[in-house]
Design a protein that fits this description.
This protein is of the alpha/beta class and about 180 residues long. It contains one helix and 21 strands.
């Protein structure tokens, strides 16, 4: 008589502050470190993968439903740089976006279904529109807006502080709604 056991994928070593809100259906995979910042909100069915590289998410970030963050395949040895996928503070990743970037700058918004290629660097206060993509290893300057068929323009409206405050308020509203739903 033989017995078959199934093993679950390994869980990464994590650093999760008590003020971070994780939906119970968030998926963690991998063996590299996962670091989440304070006041960050992770929606249901988001996938945070550290299978091929560490993942760091800053403070006051919002990760949308079914978003996928982390490298999806090994990098070739000659292409390896740092390897860490880093989201700085006040970043919003909308639902079903796929992020493999080396860095997403402070205050950046990545739209629904957008794809940020492996090793790309997106500057501060950028907006990547819905279903737009950034090529692997591309370098997007600060304040860039990508829209439509990957058209680009610069936005220097000077609204950085207002945007960051709005993200903080949005995180707080989500946290309160989650707390109220759990009390029921």
């Amino acid at each position: 008589m033989s017995t078959t056991t199934t093993t679950k994928p390994p869980k990464p070593p994590t650093h999760i502050p008590p003020t971070t809100t994780l939906h119970p259906l968030t998926t963690f995979t991998g063996t590299h470190p996962l670091t989440l910042g304070a006041q960050t909100y992770i929606h249901l069915r988001a996938i945070l993968s550290t299978t091929h590289a560490p993942l760091e998410i800053g403070a006051h970030c919002i990760i949308g439903e079914k978003a996928i963050l982390g490298l999806q395949q090994n990098e070739k040895e000659e292409e390896k740089k740092d390897g860490t996928v880093l989201l700085e503070d006040h970043v919003i990743i909308e639902p079903q976006a796929v992020i493999q970037a080396a860095k997403i700058g402070t205050g950046t918004v990545v739209g629904v279904g957008a794809k940020i290629g492996k090793g790309a660097s997106v500057g501060k206060y950028c907006k990547i529109g819905p279903l737009c993509s950034v090529a692997p290893y591309d370098d997007i300057p600060d304040y860039t807006v990508i829209y439509g068929y990957n058209e680009r323009r610069r936005d220097r409206s000077g609204m950085e502080e207002v945007r960051m405050k709005a993200v903080e308020q949005q995180v707080e509203v989500l946290r309160r709604a989650e707390f109220a739903a759990r009390k029921k």
